[in-house]
Design goal:
By secondary structure, this protein is an alpha/beta fold. The protein has helices at 21-34, 80-84, 98-106, 120-128, 137-142, 153-160, 207-223, 257-262, 281-288, 317-324, 328-345, 348-364; strands spanning 5-9, 38-44, 66-70, 88-92, 113-117, 145-148, 167-169, 197-202, 229-232, 246-249, 264-269, 293-295, 312-313. It is built from twelve helices and 13 strands. A seven-stranded parallel sheet has the order 3-2-1-4-5-6-7, sandwiched between helices. A six-stranded parallel sheet has the order 10-9-8-11-12-13, sandwiched between helices. α1 (21-34) crosses α12 (348-364) and α7 (207-223) packs across α10.
Length: 372
């Protein structure tokens, strides 16, 4: 495989504060770097007066890429040579001034120009409402590759309605160097310490997910006050009334997250409304630690995992509490099967290889995009 020169414009990677997408890009870029590719990451420099993110940079240096901070999209002309000489340029969603950046990048005629949509249902909803602030129909039809965090029906809509040339899923993934079971010296997948929480949840506040979190963690905590639960994440409103047996952690740094998953009997993940065929990065992280996962149902779940053997579904507090009473041996076996599935198909190396393959296929086809 040719060693690629890759340029990425994305959300912040130097800060995880309120920004789960940083994990996605860190995983991808580390794996690409390990496979010999060169990566340059462009990130908008956020003033400390504008965001807590600027003062909570947990990764000030990035060993797997060259990070370039800019304050305005008009500064990109200073880096035209880097962009023009790239084998692959990826523009991500959730990037400020995306339309301006897309036009500036396309004008440099990179070999392959791709878009990575981290929330395709939201993108499609905005397009239907004629909100073109982040993406225009013309942009979609001219990207050489459209990577979608979400699978399912959204891919067909991109092709059939917006004439996307090449649409491929690029789901979240996990770095197995960072997430793994913390086991005893016998290496039998048995934890080296007793779990601190019976159920834990990691995720920033999102209105679409809060109802499910209430139903699947807060209600079980209220029903059984002797069990210890935990929620970790940012932006939760002060008005929320947490049960006494739910510990709240505002933010967990990257190097603490593995221990967080290993300190739970079960991990909870909840889906965001409309995101079918879109497993969260937290689901993969917990599973990579051999922590059994309980989730609400989302369309496409059974295409990733065998329900009941690799992952558990719950609709209400009673079903959650039933799962939490699972025998220890059955719980460990469930976690082991989940770990095996993730290691076989959902690591960052798997996603890096997918990028390589889709880039190769795009270049092999005779017609590339003409531009915006």
């Amino acid at each position: 495989m040719k060693k690629l020169n890759i340029v990425i414009f994305g959300p912040s990677i130097i800060s995880l504060w309120g920004n789960n997408h940083a994990t996605t890009f860190r995983n991808l870029m580390k794996a690409l770097h390990q496979r010999g590719h060169k990566i340059t990451f462009f990130e908008k420099d956020v003033s400390k007066y504008e965001s807590k993110r600027a003062t909570r940079r947990d990764l000030p240096t990035t060993p797997f890429c060259n990070t370039i901070l800019y304050q305005s999209p008009h500064e990109i002309h200073r880096h035209e040579t880097i962009i023009a000489q790239a084998d692959l340029v990826i523009l991500s969603s959730y990037v400020t001034d995306a339309v301006t950046l897309a036009n500036s990048i396309a004008a440099l005629s990179p070999t392959c120009f791709a878009f990575y949509d981290l929330d395709t249902p939201t993108t499609l909803a905005k397009l239907q409402q004629r909100d073109f602030s982040c993406l225009t129909p013309a942009m979609i039809s001219n990207f050489d590759i459209y990577f979608s965090f979400t699978g399912g029906r959204a891919l067909a809509r991109l092709q059939n309605i917006y004439s996307a040339q090449r649409v491929h899923t690029l789901h979240s993934c996990v770095d197995p160097d960072l997430y793994f079971p913390e086991i005893d010296s016998t290496a039998t997948m048995q934890r080296s310490f007793p779990p601190e929480y019976v159920l834990g949840y990691l995720g920033n506040y999102h209105e679409d997910r809060q109802q499910a979190l209430n139903r699947l963690l807060l209600d079980p905590a209220i029903k059984n006050g002797h069990l210890q639960f935990c929620v970790a994440g940012a932006h939760y409103p002060a008005r929320l009334d947490w049960p006494h047996n739910v510990k709240i952690i505002e933010q967990i740094s990257a190097h603490q997250r593995r221990h967080f998953y290993n300190s739970q009997r079960f991990a909870l993940t909840v889906s965001q409304r409309g995101l079918d065929y879109s497993p969260s990065v937290h689901l993969f992280e917990a599973g990579a630690c051999s922590t059994p996962v309980i989730t609400d149902y989302w369309e496409g779940l059974d295409s990733f995992f065998v329900i009941g053997k690799e992952i558990l579904i719950a609709q209400d507090a009673d079903e959650v509490l039933e799962h939490l009473n699972m025998h220890r041996d059955d719980r460990r076996a469930l976690g082991r099967r989940m770990w095996e599935k993730i290691m076989s198909a959902h690591t960052s190396t798997h996603r890096a290889i997918e990028i390589e393959n889709h880039w190769r296929e795009a270049l092999a086809e005779p017609q590339m995009a003409a531009g915006f």
